[in-house]
Design goal:
By secondary structure, the protein is of the alpha/beta class. It has 21 helices and 17 strands. The protein has helices spanning about 1-10, 20-25, 25-45, 45-65, 80-85, 85-110, 115-130, 140-150, 155-170, 240-245, 265-285, 295-310, 340-355, 360-370, 370-385, 395-400, 405-420, 460-465, 485-490, 510-515, 525-530, and strands at about 190-195, 200-205, 210-215, 220, 250-255, 290-295, 315-325, 355-360, 405, 435, 435-440, 445-455, 475-480, 500, 515-520, 540, 555.
């Protein structure tokens, strides 16, 4: 089982952690590390000379046609058979691979620190991928074929697409054809009503689709860095629709997209709003208990919500679910974690304080440059070289529908990198104060369900597994076989879907996966069975949304989703 997981991880993109998107990559640190590499080459030229010699030897083999260099089998950039059978294209590809191999060897042999090596390697990867032969018209055989077949029209369309992106998309290649989607029309279509609204959030109550519903409602708490409707994308992958059909009373939080005037909003404000919002949910459903679910940064907010309630002796939460969430980030989680230095954190904090917000567009650009092959060059080839429209894909549309972070919330997230607020270090808690109380997840004694994704590049599953040791109650950990958002939206019916379970929570993730069981299909029915045991008895479904004290304000998906 462990070998199978390793194979899946190798096929995933380079791990980055969600918090690094909020920190960004400081050019100064990159150049400093690369400068250290160059300085070492001057003082000790032997490693550079050795790799230059090996590169020259490989070039000689390429010229003779004897080189065995080849791209990784799963590298989609080089799937066209021209790369294998056309000597000119093959030689160009092999020369690029040889140069990259030589630089990697130089870095590895340089003797500089591990951190400087990782930073230099990161810079090399960006530069090397930028100069990949597939990123040019002449160097891309598929693009040249399309140019010939279309009589030059593909180049015209590519220029049109490039001009459109320069003028309307901040110069970044479009990842999705936005014209094919509209929130409330073919996205976020589940029937429901906003039953509560304050300055920060809306509470949406969805219409039951069964005659009987479980007494304990389920409240979905989304990340503040994305809009809530990832849980209600299209009919075939809607979490809301599926679980409403299983008899749950479904509620969702929709966060307001903040502007500069909301720069003071921090995690304490968000948790206080959740307390107010869930008060309303309990009054509407006439239930003293709720089940709550949070994903990614929404899981961090949910964890602070749970800690605060436990400290107050508030027992409203019956169970919680954390999805694709890392509460105890470490530098070793990924190479990019090495950029989470004190200087980079403070620089990121200073930038958002100056603007009042961290703009969603900036966050998206940082994320894209952490995975340039998948999120930049892939679309350069598709949109500009091939002259094709970007795909019409609901997940990509949601991903492009960015939100801002208030400066204070951004600062709070940055603090989580270093203050270890979720790690209990004494009987009283972590030593970090929140809302006047010390954070202590060991006080959270209710049952928890945790989900991670094998190929998740934002919240690596091995880092997510550490969450199991942070809480005081019983935990069920499930590992899906997909990436970040794909893991959440693995609806039943996907023939490729599978997930891994283990009744025991082991000391380490390696021990857990070694004895885990593979299950075919979606993990949703597994979560459904877990929730059913914690959702109380069945009762008649409510006929109308809200109640006299909290009447419907507007139809779902609400108003804040459009801010």
């Amino acid at each position: 089982m462990a070998k199978q997981i390793e194979d899946l991880e190798k096929n995933a993109a380079r791990s980055t952690t969600a918090v690094n998107n909020m920190i960004g990559i400081r050019r100064g640190e990159l150049l400093k590390s690369f400068g250290t590499l160059l300085g070492r080459a001057v003082k000790q030229p032997a490693p550079l000379a050795k790799n230059l010699k090996e590169y020259g030897q490989e070039v000689a083999k390429i010229v003779k046609g004897d080189s065995e260099l080849a791209p990784e089998r799963r590298d989609r950039r080089f799937m066209d058979p021209t790369w294998r059978y056309n000597r000119l294209y093959k030689a160009g590809l092999q020369n690029w691979l040889a140069a990259r191999k030589g630089f990697e060897g130089w870095i590895a042999d340089s003797g500089i620190s591990e951190e400087d090596q990782s930073r230099s390697k990161f810079l090399l990867d960006i530069v090397a991928d930028s100069f990949a032969p597939t990123n040019t018209l002449l160097g891309n055989p598929a693009a040249m074929k399309r140019l010939y077949e279309s009589g030059g029209l593909s180049a015209v369309k590519g220029l049109q697409n490039a001009y459109k992106d320069l003028t309307t998309n901040g110069g970044m290649p479009s990842m999705v054809d936005k014209s094919k989607f509209e929130v409330g029309k073919n996205l976020a279509m589940s029937e429901g009503s906003v039953v509560f609204k304050n300055e920060m959030l809306e509470i949406i109550q969805y219409k039951p689709t069964t005659d009987k519903v479980y007494k304990t409602p389920l409240v979905i708490i989304p990340p503040q860095i994305n809009k809530f409707y990832a849980n209600d994308l299209s009919a075939h992958n809607s979490v809301v629709k599926y679980f409403a059909a299983q008899g749950y009373q479904m509620f969702a939080v929709s966060w307001r997209n903040p502007s500069r005037q909301h720069s003071h909003w921090g995690l304490e404000n968000y948790v206080q709003s959740l307390i107010e919002g869930t008060d309303v949910v309990m009054k509407i459903t006439n239930s003293k208990k709720i089940n709550v679910s949070g994903a990614c940064s929404g899981g961090a907010t949910l964890s602070l919500f749970l800690s605060e309630l436990a400290t107050r002796g508030d027992t409203r939460v019956n169970s919680y679910t954390l999805m694709v969430c890392v509460l105890d980030p470490k530098k070793t989680d990924s190479e990019v974690g090495l950029f989470a230095s004190k200087a980079s954190i403070e620089a990121a904090r200073k930038m958002s304080r100056k603007k009042g917000i961290l703009p969603g567009e900036d966050l998206a650009k940082v994320f894209a440059w952490l995975r340039p092959n998948d999120l930049i060059w892939n679309y350069v080839v598709n949109n500009y070289l091939l002259g094709q429209d970007p795909p019409a894909f609901d997940i990509l549309y949601w991903n492009a529908d960015t939100t801002n972070l208030p400066a204070q919330l951004h600062s709070d997230y940055l603090d989580m990198v270093s203050d270890k607020r979720f790690v209990t270090t004494s009987k009283t808690g972590s030593g970090v104060e929140f809302m006047g109380n010390e954070i202590n997840l060991k006080n959270v004694k209710v049952d928890g369900f945790m989900l991670a994704g094998v190929t998740d590049h934002i919240t690596p599953w091995r880092a997510s597994y550490r969450n199991t040791a942070l809480f005081g109650g019983t935990v069920d950990f499930v590992l899906a076989s997909s990436g970040h958002i794909q893991s959440l939206l693995t609806a039943p019916g996907n023939p490729k879907a599978k997930f891994f379970t283990n009744k025991n929570i082991e000391d380490t993730c390696d021990e857990w996966i070694e004895s885990a069981e593979e299950n075919a299909g979606s993990w949703w029915p597994h979560w459904d069975a877990w929730l059913k045991e914690r959702s109380g008895e069945l009762k008649n479904a409510p006929r109308n949304p809200g109640n006299k004290s909290f009447p419907p304000l507007c139809k779902a998906p609400g108003e804040y989703v459009f801010t």
